[in-house]
Recover the amino acids of this structure.
């Protein structure tokens, strides 16, 4: 059994048989500090940070766990205390094995990396800010370049399978908010799609599922209603 918990913004926790995986934990100044690592005694805890943006990298919180059984996996653009020994710094388009967990990275179309994580027979994709950032009003050539960059990066996963994918569904993109997910499912056979980076607009998943072009995968989109909500998959 695998348990997924929505934390806040782009933050999720995935509990597998042996490991607890925390992605892009952001508490918004402590408002959503909703992890108690003492509850996972006996499991290895891996804390992933996709890039340095404040809404993905809550340094004031995650390093309070440094004396616990925690491994930090940080994109190379993240600043941290170099005296820490339990930190692995990762680059884009590389592979790593850390305490039995296999990790691959992709290059973000914004900053940092996206993660592909293999743990206890489960494959998890966390996009970070790797997304199809197609902005209404942006220079047409910029948007064209973004489309090309995003599709080329996720094409590296062509034909692969994932059990869980955490993907941006950002309402600031207006009518183009769905493009990142739509492109992703054309490349990857994913069982469960969890929207993220939706800035508190919880209706995004429902809106996406009603769009005709989601017909082939709408039943795989998970609707999130609140921080702390959990699922067993």
């Amino acid at each position: 059994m695998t348990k997924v918990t929505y934390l806040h913004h782009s933050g999720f926790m995935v509990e597998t048989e042996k490991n607890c995986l925390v992605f892009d934990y952001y508490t918004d100044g402590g408002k959503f500090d909703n992890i108690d690592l003492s509850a996972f005694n006996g499991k290895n805890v891996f804390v992933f940070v996709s890039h340095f943006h404040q809404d993905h990298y809550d340094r004031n919180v995650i390093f309070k766990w440094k004396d616990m059984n925690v491994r930090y996996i940080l994109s190379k653009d993240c600043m941290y205390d170099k005296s820490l020994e339990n930190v692995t710094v990762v680059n884009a388009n590389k592979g790593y094995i850390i305490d039995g967990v296999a990790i691959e990275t992709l290059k973000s179309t914004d900053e940092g990396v996206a993660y592909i994580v293999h743990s206890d027979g489960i494959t998890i994709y966390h996009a970070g800010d790797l997304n199809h950032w197609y902005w209404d009003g942006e220079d047409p050539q910029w948007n064209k370049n973004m489309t090309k960059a995003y599709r080329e990066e996720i094409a590296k996963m062509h034909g692969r399978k994932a059990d869980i994918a955490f993907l941006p569904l950002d309402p600031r993109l207006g009518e183009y908010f769905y493009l990142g997910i739509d492109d992703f499912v054309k490349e990857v056979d994913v069982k469960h799609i969890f929207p993220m980076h939706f800035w508190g607009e919880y209706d995004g998943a429902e809106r996406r599922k009603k769009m005709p072009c989601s017909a082939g995968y709408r039943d795989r989109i998970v609707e999130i209603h609140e921080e702390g909500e959990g699922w067993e998959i």
The first strand starts at residue 3 and ends at 8. The helical segments are 59-62, 140-154, 179-187, 204-210. DSSP finds four helices and 13 strands in the chain.
